[in-house]
């Protein structure tokens, strides 16, 4: 799950998911001033298609759907919306270089990946969550400006990945990092041993969870 950067297409043996938040943003930015609620405006229609998908996603979450139920719900309710959206996109007549033209082109260029997320309930409709988790790293980067070496950059990325994954799993970051440093994981450890140190392990959660 990533934005529309074409460089990701070079990664082998993966399936790409399309981010509908980015698609929605292009259409939202194309809405003329004062036309936000004018449903006759094509750009507003584009936003409405995306909003319909996000509304279904919120319903599934509020109802506590399992991953299997989410998949079935998406196939029943969201797939027809995407099919209608694609049909609508193909019919649009745009003015070259306009914001609306860019929005339509951006969406059509994502056509191949629009329905990938329907294959698995664990997939996301957008990459908003990952972008939010990256913000702390990006903000910090403004302070240190750059890493002095490739190894330093790698170490920094690993450290932030550990911290953000711990947070995402409801752990106290300080406690979790202290815990894994005490266990000193190495490349020689078997997968079953490493599994016991991961933030979603039940024992790790009990030892390092955030106290309410």
From TrEMBL:
InterPro entries to which the protein is assigned, alphabetical: IS66_C (IPR039552), Transposase-related (IPR052344), Transposase_IS66_central (IPR004291)
Name of the featured protein: Transposase IS66 family protein
The Transposase IS66 central domain, residue ranges: 1-154
Residues of the Transposase IS66 C-terminal domain: 161-200
